[in-house]
UniProtKB/TrEMBL annotation:
Enzyme Commission number(s) of this protein: 1.14.12.19
Protein name as catalogued: Bifunctional 3-phenylpropionate/cinnamic acid dioxygenase ferredoxin subunit
Keywords assigned by UniProt, alphabetized: 2Fe-2S, Dioxygenase, Iron, Iron-sulfur, Metal-binding, Oxidoreductase
Residue ranges of domain Rieske in the record: 10-109
Pfam assignment, any one: Rieske
Enzyme kind, highest EC tier: oxidoreductase
MF terms (GO), sorted A to Z: 2 iron, 2 sulfur cluster binding; 3-phenylpropionate dioxygenase activity; metal ion binding; monooxygenase activity
Species this protein is from: Streptomyces himalayensis subsp. himalayensis
Xref: InterPro entries: Rieske_2Fe-2S, Rieske_2Fe-2S_sf
Key word Oxidoreductase present: yes
């Protein structure tokens, strides 16, 4: 892994490292963003949200990923993977979404940038 700055993002994985329906947690020290960021693989695409659930101290990278959403492992609030928008209680605040790009088979995270999907 390497951090080449915000203009090109952070290379967090290569395609195949994150299985379909799985996620990785990029630690806050690496994101430079104040929170860890979860990078998800769902239906052939990659998405990123702040890792800490907006409802409590749970890691969304450990949640259940399906149908474009992630379900929090603690109380089952769901968030849209594309936008971070909250889909159901008990969370009431959306998760911040970040841009992910796949370039030459590598997965790049752009912390703080709006997703383009
Ligand atoms: S901590 Fe995620 S729904 Fe409660």
């Amino acid at each position: 892994m390497s951090n080449t700055g915000t203009s090109t993002g952070i290379r967090v994985a290569v395609a195949g490292d994150i299985a379909e329906g799985e996620a990785i947690k990029v630690p806050a020290e690496q994101t430079g963003h104040g929170d860890a960021i979860a990078v998800f693989h769902d239906e052939g695409a990659y998405y990123a949200l702040d890792d800490t659930c907006t409802h409590g101290q749970a890691s969304l990278s450990e949640g259940w990923i399906e149908g474009g959403e992630v379900e929090c492992p603690l109380h089952s609030a769901r968030f849209c993977l594309k936008t971070g928008e909250v889909q159901c209680m008990p969370a009431t605040v959306g998760a911040r979404a970040h841009r992910v790009a796949v370039r030459d088979g590598e997965i790049w995270l752009h912390p703080g940038e709006e997703p383009t999907v």
